[in-house]
Amino acid sequence: MIKKSKITASRRLALKTKLLKTAAVMLEKAKEEKKLEREATLGERVPLLQLSGLSMQDLQALCKDLHHKIDVVDEERYDIDAKVTKNYKEIDNLSQKIFELKGKMKRPALKRVKISADAMLGALLGSKVKESVDFKANLKTVKKEEEKKEEVTDWRKNVEAMSGMEGRKKLFNAGQ
């Protein structure tokens, strides 16, 4: 027995629209919070520059200081990037080892290769094979025995032999 829902279609549609509106409002709030958090973090880490009233030497010192900070940040970023790359490679190696241990290695699709016997022996034996091998010459020769031809003289004589009646005929004649 199929159970009918107690909510009508119009009520269900109204609830869905309210849920979508609420989700959209929550998404906007989350974006705004993330933006404010980013601005606050940047405000803490990067103080505002006060360039007014500085002499040329002070500006040069400030530029050198900022370049030094940029270099330090770039070194840290490079080190972190190298660590992440190393971790990804390690994860790939470990996952490959897991697949090998489970025995679920995917076999690559093999392509059919046409290769001659000489090339195959050269690949297998390396430089040991100096001259080409003729397989046909090494095969055993088989002489076909000539079939013995039976001489058929008269077809009427062979008819009794072929029908299998010859032995019965003798038994029949012996019984009389």
TrEMBL record:
<dbReference type="GO" id="GO:0003779">
    <property type="term" value="F:actin binding"/>
</dbReference>
<protein>
    <recommendedName>
        <fullName>Troponin I4b, tandem duplicate 2</fullName>
    </recommendedName>
</protein>
<dbReference type="GO" id="GO:0005861">
    <property type="term" value="C:troponin complex"/>
</dbReference>
<dbReference type="Pfam" id="PF00992">
    <property type="entry name" value="Troponin"/>
</dbReference>
<dbReference type="InterPro" id="IPR001978">
    <property type="entry name" value="Troponin"/>
</dbReference>
<keyword id="KW-0514">Muscle protein</keyword>
<comment type="function">
    <text>Troponin I is the inhibitory subunit of troponin, the thin filament regulatory complex which confers calcium-sensitivity to striated muscle actomyosin ATPase activity.</text>
</comment>
<dbReference type="InterPro" id="IPR038077">
    <property type="entry name" value="Troponin_sf"/>
</dbReference>
<comment type="similarity">
    <text>Belongs to the troponin I family.</text>
</comment>
<keyword id="KW-0009">Actin-binding</keyword>
<dbReference type="GO" id="GO:0060048">
    <property type="term" value="P:cardiac muscle contraction"/>
</dbReference>
<dbReference type="GO" id="GO:0003009">
    <property type="term" value="P:skeletal muscle contraction"/>
</dbReference>
<dbReference type="InterPro" id="IPR050875">
    <property type="entry name" value="Troponin_I"/>
</dbReference>
